[in-house]
Amino acid sequence: MPKGSKVSIVGAGGNVGSIVAYSIAMQGLAHEVILVDRDKDRARGKALDMNQAAAALRTHSVVKAAESYEDIADSKVVVITAGFPRKPGMSRDDLLFANADIVSEVTENVVKHAPDSIIIVVTNPLDTMTYVALKKSGFPKNRVIGMAGILDGARMTHFIYEKLGFGAGQIRATVIGGHGDYMVPLPRYSTVAGIPITDLLTPGELAEVVEATKKGGAQIVKLMGTSAYFAPGKATAIMVEAILKDSKKIYPCSTLLEGEYGVHGIPNGVPVTLGADGVEEIIELQLTPKEREEFDRSVASVKELIDILESQDYFGEKK
Ligand SMILES: NC(=O)C1=CN([C@@H]2O[C@H](COP(=O)(O)OP(=O)(O)OC[C@H]3O[C@@H](n4cnc5c(N)ncnc54)[C@H](O)[C@@H]3O)[C@@H](O)[C@H]2O)C=CC1
Ligand SMILES: O=C([O-])CC(=O)C(=O)O
Q: Which residue ranges does the record assign to the Lactate/malate dehydrogenase C-terminal domain (predicted)?
């Protein structure tokens, strides 16, 4: 691992952030993992617990609780999971105002103390929070990335397995679009050991897989009273790994579209290559008219939230 592979996680006292940190530390992906949370004792406790797990595993990653934002200096990646999770009956969009304020505050501190970092946003509503971090940081778009597509694809993979009853570990599923009720699962780009799932499942079964994927987050919220964290945390750690290793692997991530997919100025989930510069390439899929329509609907739903923030001059751009 190159010297200086330092990763900071803001919101690490919470469910998702602590799984991100734990995954990175247990894999020995970074020399230093910094836990930032407004609940400092929780961050201190998690750091002790993770360091002791690292000692048991004999891995070299060192986990530290931040005493102040100064401790995130020189981070290669800063992950933002700070913010409220939804409760049963809520949509992710209901978190808009409360979490926009948190993401704004965190981003301002990232700019001040880790100005060269790559930001991975996890806080919901994801695509809009990615936009908030982008605007508030002024970072180039390749350095502000939203996590959702890896998670949504993993959920679809699981639901395909549930239908098939075989192929675990060999299923690849693709989900694009925003991380909300209008996400776009793509059976046409999903395979089992290279075999298109459209050859293995009936249209009715595929429709059930698509529906289950869209409701995958809400299903867990209903069962647990709060949202998922193991799969979201792991999905985020996968993005961190691709950046630290400069792997250039392709993953669906939320990124600002500036003409790609015919979209201008809205972040949305599309396949990208992830490397040391963050988002290095945006890959344009050739969508069918129906897929295109669904993607456009998803973009529109993100734009509605951004418009709400802009109508209140959230980014201070009105004269
Ligand atoms: N993009 C995605 O696919 C997913 C997004 N999420 C989102 O991630 C966020 C976090 O979820 P959980 O970890 O379950 O919530 P949580 O409540 O367990 O953790 C949030 C943490 O953020 C901290 N925090 C709040 N405001 C802060 C601030 N201003 N500065 C520093 N720390 C602050 C809290 O003290 C808490 O420890 C939620 O918004 C949730 O909706 C969750 C799962 C998947
Ligand atoms: O469902 C939620 O609110 C959290 C989330 O984004 C997910 O697990 O997909």
A: 151-307
ipTM: 0.99
Query: Residue 272: its pLDDT value, please?
Result: 98
The strand ranges marked E within the chain are 6-10, 32-36, 62-65, 77-80, 118-121, 144-146, 171-176, 184-192, 195-196, 249-258, 264-275, 278-282
Backbone torsion region of residue 79, taken as left when φ is above 0, otherwise alpha when ψ lies between -120 and 50, otherwise beta: beta
> Binding site residues, as ranges?
11-17, 37, 86, 92, 99, 122-124, 155
How many beta carbons lie within 10 A of that of residue 55, not counting itself? Answer: 9
**How confident is the chain (319 residues) per 10-residue block, as mean pLDDT?**
77 98 97 98 98 95 97 98 97 97 98 98 98 98 98 98 98 98 98 98 98 98 98 98 98 98 98 98 98 98 98 85
b (16+ CB within 10 A) / e for 206-225: beebbebbbebbbebbeeee
Q: What is the pLDDT of residue 126?
A: 98
Question: Which ligand is nearest to the Cα of residue 155, counting in written order?
Answer: 2
- Domain 6-147 fold is Rossmann fold (3.40.50)
What is the 310 CA–ligand 2 centroid distance (Å)? Answer: 24
* Measured distance between the N- and C-terminal CA atoms of the chain, rounded to whole angstroms: 48
Residue 307: CB atoms within 10 A of its CB come to 11
- The CATH number assigned to the domain with range 149-310 reads 3.90.110.10
Q: Is 179 a catalytic residue?
A: yes
Nearest-5° angle of CA 267, CA 298, CA 106? Answer: 35
Interatomic CA distance for residues 158 and 234, integer angstroms: 15
What residue ranges do the domains of the chain occupy?
Answer: 6-147, 149-310
Q: What distance in Å separates the CA atoms of residue 116 and residue 139, rounded to the nearest whole number?
A: 9
